[in-house]
């Protein structure tokens, strides 16, 4: 079949088709497409004209096997629609683009099984590295260990798993939680509930510890009845608030593990006619854009999401340039964004 016949029948045109048409070798066509100095100008011109005419597309997989690099980075996030994760991805892409890498983005939808599937798909696609924030269900790390076993750079961010050693980027979750609970105490709050994330995640554990230590510093007993394991979604903030109110537990403030949960808390309290902050003060963690839109505006812990992405991308590049180097663990600082949802005293 001639190259024209293949093209007209919607079959993919290959290097061999171009080589046969020009009566040259496949390697000559390949070198011509790469503008190799050993190929004459006339041959290069003929090859490029045919490639353009018949819309020749290089076989990226074959090229990557030859070069031992696909120039791609796999990224797995729990939920792509969250402002925090989309902003981290923007930071990763900024670094990747400048270094000549492409980014393949997958989401686990907070499901362990889906996380396993997409991670193995990215492994099969020969990504040069993986940057990931684990799902709320993830406890077993075998699917990530596969990358380490093959010496493929692996960087965790935000939600850092336990039971596996690798590179990581996070914020000081403990310090952020400590500061925001101390802020509530300074406003006069003494019965502060905490809605945690899943307790298998390091982030949750660190924020919970910061909450407890802030109470202890100010001689307020830690009451386990005021600690509710929640999740990371607005809907979970709503259902957990409804449960707490049904339990008829007396509180004057709620520290939510993240802003989506805090927004769910606030919507529920308002629906029940409870004033924020004078009935119950509410604070979150993330500084999601919705924090400034809801009424009253939400006090929260601001995380440098874009910078987290940049740091993760730079760690990947360092691991590529220095294979076998020590794992890099970077911890970024947070800042309080104090707004009306927690202000009980005049400054």
Automatic annotation (TrEMBL):
This protein's UniProt keywords: DNA-binding, Transcription, Transcription regulation
InterPro entries in the record: HTH_LacI, LacI/GalR-like_sensor, Lambda_DNA-bd_dom_sf, Peripla_BP_I
Segments forming domain HTH lacI-type: 13-67
Superkingdom of origin: Bacteria
The name this protein goes by in its record: LacI family transcriptional regulator
Organism: Mucilaginibacter lappiensis
């Amino acid at each position: 079949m001639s190259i024209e016949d293949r093209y007209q029948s919607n079959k993919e045109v290959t290097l061999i088709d171009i080589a046969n048409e020009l009566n040259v070798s496949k390697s000559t066509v390949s070198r011509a497409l790469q503008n190799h100095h050993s190929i004459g100008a006339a041959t290069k011109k003929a090859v490029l004209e045919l490639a353009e005419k018949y819309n020749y597309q290089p076989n990226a997989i074959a090229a990557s096997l030859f070069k031992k690099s696909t120039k791609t980075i796999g990224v797995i996030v729990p939920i792509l629609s969250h402002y925090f994760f989309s902003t981290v991805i923007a930071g990763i892409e900024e670094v990747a683009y400048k270094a000549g890498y492409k980014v393949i983005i997958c989401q686990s939808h907070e499901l362990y099984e889906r996380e396993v599937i997409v991670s193995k798909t990215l492994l099969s696609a020969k990504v040069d590295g993986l940057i990931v924030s684990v799902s709320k269900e993830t406890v077993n790390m075998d699917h990530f260990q596969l990358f380490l076993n093959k010496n493929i750079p692996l960087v965790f961010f935000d939600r850092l798993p336990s039971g596996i050693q690798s590179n990581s980027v996070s914020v000081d979750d403990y310090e952020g939680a400590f500061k925001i609970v101390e802020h509530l105490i300074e406003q006069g709050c003494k019965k502060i509930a905490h809605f945690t994330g899943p307790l298998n995640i390091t982030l949750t554990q660190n924020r919970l510890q910061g909450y407890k230590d802030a109470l202890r510093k100010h001689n307020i007993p830690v009451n386990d009845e005021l600690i509710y394991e929640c999740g990371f979604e607005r809907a979970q903030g709503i259902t957990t608030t409804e449960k707490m109110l049904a339990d008829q537990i007396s509180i004057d403030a709620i520290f939510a593990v993240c802003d989506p949960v805090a927004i769910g808390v606030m919507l529920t309290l308002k629906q029940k006619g409870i004033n924020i902050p004078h009935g119950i003060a509410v604070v979150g963690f993330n500084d999601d854009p919705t924090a400034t839109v809801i009424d009253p505006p939400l006090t929260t812990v601001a995380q440098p999401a874009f910078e987290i992405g940049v740091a993760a991308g730079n760690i990947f590049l360092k691991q590529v340039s220095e294979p076998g180097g020590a794992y890099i663990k970077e911890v970024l600082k947070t800042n309080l964004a104090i707004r009306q949802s927690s202000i009980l005293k005049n400054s």
